[in-house]
Design goal:
By secondary structure, this protein is an all-alpha fold. It has 11 helices and no strands. Helix 2 packs across helix 7, helix 7 packs across helix 9 and helix 9 packs antiparallel against helix 10. It is elongated, with a radius of gyration of 20 Å.
Length: 219
């Protein structure tokens, strides 16, 4: 949209300064994601963060009040981005058990499809369950929907989510450390086991964990 068109529609004009600020903010977020993935998030100083982002130290406080705020923002952005990918991949699926299976199987493949996100998740660990956007809220929603539809029999959705999250994080960690041990079969076997844990009969769990996945372009 041209500046004139933006003015005509009442939309705010995006200036060169605005674009530069957005790039700097994104560089800080990307640096935070890398540091968390490397396991250095808790120990990193603001100096280290700005060096990783390749920006001046003083620019940090133009965007964030503290490194805790930065890491919280980075966590929410990464997890919400991945959650939206799963939403696209499961669009049109009405069976909550199938939605859950597709989301878990796609997430288990992060180790090679999106290693940066996989590293971020293993670096964050179970703390990711406390983030109000992204994967955990969607998985909890799907488990609760499965219980309501009679597809899952677990009595407590949040406890079930903890078990599922632990399994996924463990698999991603093994994939990072021993990539030769984790392939699509291993991911689908985990999905089958998690479905059975939720109460899906063995034959149905096997079918759901072996069904064709949406094209990777949908991810």
């Amino acid at each position: 949209m041209s500046a004139e068109a933006a003015s005509a529609t009442g939309a705010p004009k995006v200036t060169r300064l605005d674009r530069r600020k957005a790039r700097t903010r994104q560089a800080l977020i990307d640096a935070a994601v890398r540091l968390i993935a490397e396991g250095r998030g808790d120990r990193a100083s603001i100096q280290e963060i700005t060096e990783a982002a390749d920006i001046g130290f003083g620019s940090f406080y133009n965007h964030f009040d503290s490194k805790e705020q930065l890491f919280q923002t980075a966590s929410e952005e990464v997890l919400e981005r991945w959650g939206q990918m799963i939403d696209r991949a499961t669009a049109g699926i009405t069976d909550p058990a199938e939605v859950f299976a597709v989301g878990l199987r796609i997430s288990g493949r992060l180790g090679w499809t999106h290693p940066d996100i996989a590293g971020f998740l293993t670096g964050t660990g179970l703390d990711a369950m406390d983030i109000p956007v992204g994967l955990a809220p969607r998985a909890l929603r799907d488990i609760e929907a499965g219980r309501a539809a009679g597809r899952f029999t677990v009595p407590d959705a949040e406890i079930a989510l903890s078990a599922v999250a632990g399994g996924l994080l463990g698999l991603l960690r093994i994939c990072q450390r021993h990539p030769d041990r984790v392939d699509e079969t291993a991911v689908d076997q985990l999905a089958e086991a998690e479905l059975r844990l939720l109460g899906v009969p063995a034959d149905e769990a096997a079918r759901l964990s072996a069904a064709p996945l949406p094209s990777i372009e949908a991810w």
